[in-house]
Amino acid sequence: MASYIREFIARNLRNPQGYFGSWFAKNAFIRSNTSLIENTIPLVGIQPDHVVLEVGFGPGVGLEIALKHLQQGSGKLYGIDISEPMIQAATSRLGKNMTNQKMELTLGDVVNLPFADNMFDRVYHTNCFYFWSDHEKAAKELYRVMKKDSLMVTTMEKERVENAQRRGFMKYGNVDVDNYVSCVEKAGFSNVKVEDKCMDKSDAPFIVIYATATKE
């Protein structure tokens, strides 16, 4: 029974499916990731006219916060997630913003982004990259769709994720930060910096990785 539960959690952390998977992931993500998301968005530096992409948005907490920075300008927010239930959860949470053309959500994979070259001013993702199937392909795709000198911000609660790994919940994840950073640099990003930070309200530690899409 214990191994079945671990397998269920591991699969649905990476890609929530079905009713119970959706319920578990939605509630787990909101409970565990909200503080990190609240601390991430200010680091992204979203301006009212920016075109912004969130990768792996889950139930939409980050989308909701990011949208507030775009309401007074011509900017637009895009989100991509591999899970249909997460698309549904975020749409239920933020559907009115899709009718006024401020947000667009896509079911898809970061290794094959359905976006034009040089499209985004900002890209961000939280507690997400370690579930990507191929860090190298994902980094190349993100670099492709970002504008010259645009910024990508990656955040991760490293200690919490490593604890989940020890408990057997990260079977379908690769939490190697050094490998991720290496792939980002190989893709063409520059000024790649890893910083340790603490959350404003709880002092819980997290890491932030900045990367600039330097292009000719």
Structural class: alpha/beta
Strand order of the largest sheet: 3-2-1-4-5-7-6
Query: What is the helix tally?
Result: 8
What is the chain-wise order of helices and strands? HHEHEHHEEHEHHEE
Q: What number is the mean pLDDT?
A: 85
Low-confidence stretches: none
| Radius of gyration (Å) | 16 Å
The helicity comes to: 40-55%
Shape, per Cα inertia axes: globular
How does the major sheet shape up? 7 strands, mixed
**Percent of residues in beta strands:** 15-25%
Q: What is the strand tally?
A: 7
Notes on the structure:
The chain has 216 residues and is an alpha/beta fold. The protein has helices spanning 2-14, 18-44, 61-67, 84-94, 96-99, 135-145, 158-166, 177-187; strands spanning 51-55, 76-81, 103-107, 120-126, 146-156, 190-198, 205-213. A seven-stranded mixed sheet has the order 3-2-1-4-5-7-6, with helices on both faces. Helix 6 (135-145) crosses helix 8 (177-187). It is globular. The model has no long low-confidence stretch (mean pLDDT 85).
Q: Top keywords for this entry?
A:
216 residues; transferase; Methyltransf_11; 8 helices; sterol 24-C-methyltransferase activity; Erg6_SMT_methyltransf; Methyltransferase type 11 domain-containing protein
